[in-house]
Amino acid sequence: MQNITLRMDAELLKTLRYRAVDEGKSLSAWVTDTLRTLVETSMSADKVKEEALAYLEQGFHLGGEPFSREDIYER
């Protein structure tokens, strides 16, 4: 693993430390786990979106026969 340096205000840092302690983790472990979850969730959402768009491009058969232009514009 590599180290990084983050800058944040004192209140945010305090809140994050409390959250980490509540989960029984170090701040570093908590931040790492939280970021990993965020990335995995985002990647999962992207995959679902791609699959849904592919499904829409494929189209849907709703049954019946297609309308002719005359049927659609019948007066």
Describe the overall structure.
With 75 residues, the protein is mostly helical. It has a domain at 11-60. Helix content is 65%, strand content 0%. It has three helices and no strands. It has helices at residues 10-22, 27-58, 69-72. The longest helix has 32 residues, at 27-58. The radius of gyration is 25 Å and the shape is rod-shaped. It starts with 9 loop residues before the first helix and ends with a helix. The model has no long low-confidence stretch (mean pLDDT 89).
Which properties best describe this structure?
75 residues; mainly alpha
Give the helices and strands, then pairings:
Layout (H helix, E strand, L loop, with lengths): L9 H13 L4 H32 L10 H4 L3
Helix pairs in contact: 1-2
Number of helices: 3
Computed Rg? 25 Å
User: How far apart are the termini?
Assistant: 72 Å
List unreliable stretches of 5+ residues: none
Query: Which percent bin holds the helix content?
Result: 55-70%
Largest sheet geometry: none
In short:
The protein is mainly alpha-helical. The protein has 3 helices and no strands.
